[in-house]
Amino acid sequence: MESIExxxxxxxxxxxxxxxxxxxxxxxxxxxxxxxxxxxEIDLTPTQERIYDSYADAFEIIHNNLxxxxxxxxxxxxxxxxxxxxMSAMSQFESHKQRFFNHLLTGMKCxxxxxxxxxxxxxxxxxxxxxxxxxxxxxxxxxxEVSLEECKDLNLDLTPREYLMDYxxxxxxxxxxxxxxxxxxxxxxxxAFDADGSPVVSIEAVxxxxxxxxxxxxxxxxxxALEQLLWHFGHKQVAEVTGxxxxxxxxxxxxxxxxxxxxxxxxxxxxxxxxxxxxILIFSDAGGTGRSYHADLNAINRxxxxxxxxxxxxxxxxxxQGLGRxxxxxxxxxxxxxPVTTNVRGERRFISTIARRLDSLGALTRGQRQTGGKGLPxxxxxxxxxxxxxxxxxxxxxxxxxxxxxxxxxxRKEIFGWRGVLIELTDSVKELFLDTASQxxxxxxxxxxxxxxxxxxxxxxxxxxxxxxWDRNTIRKxxxxxxxx
Length: 485
Fold this sequence. Notes:
Shape: flat
Low-confidence stretches: 361-423
Number of strands: 11
């Protein structure tokens, strides 16, 4: 067990596939026969493109000002004085950036998604929408600032822009650090405090933050996806199965008000949908397991489900779990699965990352990589227009890591032994290498092959050419790219 744990995911893949080959591993799954797949690709309007570009420009300015703030706070300068503080600031920035643009694109999809849902309802379908973000924490923070009188007629900004504002006010570096010299002559900075024990603030960093807040306040807001759907169709037509305890709804006069949800709200909402009292159901991760929204033969609502994957989960297994809510046994009809994506390349690459993680999931749970997506047509989901970009490089851009490096690092100990010596290039190992290389293109494939050959050690090129059929010139080019950067 310790060996497998140290070997990582790829080592577990090898074991699962070997067990299946020996007939010792059996995994059943529901057939996806009859399920239709129809990607809803949304082209951003010129106005949406302008808004997206304005926020991208804003993040570029934030990134530049972040480095200036780190210098003003004595965290970095000619050199890094406090590595942990710098890493924390950069990590917070990248995390908020990724989540912000995910929320922004999800909100931008809603106008055309609403039209598609209206068409489905007109055709007699029941609609299921799968999301991840519910804006619950942001809502709680804003409601804490509102009095009981104002709750009856709210004027709140529940847009992705507020996440960025929260980042600037809570995570943007403004606390001044003092530089100290150690006994060995090294310089390191530590947070500065006044006589009362309060952190000392850098005036220059605060000025940079204030300028950013003013700039963001002038940008166009995009409402959250869940609010757009609830406000358009009305809460009497939409069943919400999420973890939210409170939500903001809109009455017939267009006024916003706060609605509290009890502990049994999700059960009541599910019952209303399955009994055909509500035509639309929206669920998050809180309603992604242990619940059924399919066209059950025992339910009143037996209309065919149109399942929209509006927002992909950060975890591949959660995405498949969500799909399984509308496709189960004893159903009157299989659902129509409609992943919703935009023409923004970065989002396609993110969904491509999810698809590849599904393949790894299949290798672990069924002993075969190709079964992780349970038959989902990945080409339709990840790249409907067959754009010319390297899938491996795209994954690195979206996921923050290089796919070849992830594979090599995770299998190094298991396949190459604890002393760095190759144990045995078995058929399963060969299949894993070849299968991984076949999913990569261009520079990503060359670098992966080069990394494997370098791990093989002396004679690795000859062995890879003989056992894997890899071209030695391609390997040499990949090694040159790796070593030269």
